[in-house]
Amino acid sequence: MALILAIESSCDETSVAITKDGKLLSNVVSTQIEVHRKYGGVMPEIASRLHAENIGVVLKEAVEQANIRLEDVDAFAVTRGPGLIGALHVGLQCAKTLAMLYKKPLIPVHHLTGHIYANEYIEPLQFPLLAVVVSGGNSELVIMEESMKFKVIGETRDDAIGECYDKVARVLGLPYPGGLPIDQLAKEGEHTYDLPVPLKGEHTYDLSYSGLKTNIINLVHNLEQKGEKVNVPNMCRSFQDVAVGLVVDRAIKAVNEYKVKQVILAGGVSANSYLRSEIKREMEKRNIKIIIPPMWCCTDQAAMIAKVAEHLYDMKVFAPLSIGVDPNWFIEDYKNFE
To answer: Residue 13's beta-bridge partner residues?
Structure first.
């Protein structure tokens, strides 16, 4: 084990965390949600500027909370991708500077491995397992036969589930981010709208949300043109039943085929109460161990990057200071920096 300082800046949270021998000493997060809310989504250029403004303050606070000295850090870890290219650059340049200044190893971390390993703050992972990764930019089903070994068996063909939530919320006049208001209103509604089930009948673990999103947008616009009102709670319930149902359906199929010992939820959409309850119910019916992360683990933060970095430090997976960001980095290539 070691003293690790990790940086996360892949989207709209600037975060620095410090762990020592596996124990989380600090995890400081500065969120930009209020700034981006007025635009109905993350504005990449604004996000990059805010990261540049915030990174120094967040770093200072994390070091003070952990009560450590930067010269005592054993390695500096950072999210290399996937994410917004400008936002990723800010975190990487900070980590590179620290690694060069203190002559310590630089550990690039794949963002989605962070979401997966955030669950280790709850309890140990048991292999083989299925990781259901659902967030604003990514939707993947990942089989792990052993620690730090990833096999993507299904992924989004177009929009990720979180992106779909945001776009549906926008057309319904709900605030950004769209996940929480849709989740809350769905509890008040009934499934009254007939929406298409993506990839119905296909033998695949892939996910698709573009068609569902487009169908709802067209349906809402057609009703408005006729002077009819959309029943927003009912639309939220109808949408959520289909969107979450697709994820749960894929998870059930994967559990049956790959004979996993454990299923873990990961990513921002894992905060969705309906997804949490449905996947828990289905896995308990099959006597499969399920880890559902606490809310603080669902959002982007550097604690999850530090947790992965602990494993990579033991594996001596270090990168040269010439490394660049990779917004489209594949999870299977997490040790490949070229």
So the answer is: 31
Q: Which domains does the chain have, with CATH numbers?
A: 3-116+299-333 (3.30.420.40), 126-292 (3.30.420.40)
Rg (CA), the chain: 20
Q: What digits encode the pLDDT tens for the residues 109-153?
A: 999 999 999 999 999 999 999 999 998 888 999 999 999 999 999
Backbone angles phi, psi at 164, to 5 degrees: -65, -45
Is residue 294 reached through a cis peptide bond, with omega within 30 degrees of 0 on the bond before it? no
Higher pLDDT pick, 337 / 305: 305
Q: What DSSP assignment string belongs to 154-166?
A: EEBSSS-HHHHHH
178-192 b/e with 16+ CB inside 10 Å = b? bbebbbebbeebeee
Omega within 30 of 0 (cis) for the link into 44: no
Tokens of 110: 């794949």
Residue 204: CB atoms within 10 A of its CB come to 13
Q: What pLDDT sits at residue 311?
A: 97
Give residue for tokens 């007939």: 194
List the structure tokens of 44.
Answer: 């990449």
Average pLDDT value for the chain: 95
Residues 253-308: tens digit of each pLDDT: 999 999 999 999 999 999 999 999 999 999 999 999 999 999 998 999 999 999 99
Whether 68 contacts 25, CB under 8 Å:
yes
Spatial distance between the Cα atoms of 26 and 17, rounded to a whole number of angstroms: 5
The residues near 200 (Cβ < 8 Å, ≥ 6 apart) are: none
Segment 198-204 long-range contacts (CB within 8 Å, at least 24 positions apart): 198/242, 198/246, 199/157, 199/246, 204/154
Total number of residues shown for the chain: 338
User: How much is the pLDDT for 246?
Assistant: 96
Residue with tokens 């990723």: 88
Spell out the alpha helix ranges (H) of the chain. 33-37, 44-66, 85-102, 111-117, 161-171, 179-186, 210-225, 232-258, 273-285, 295-298, 302-314
pLDDT of residue 260: 97
Rounded Cα distance between 4 and 314, Å, is 12
Rounded to an integer, what is the distance from CA 199 to the centroid of its chain? 23
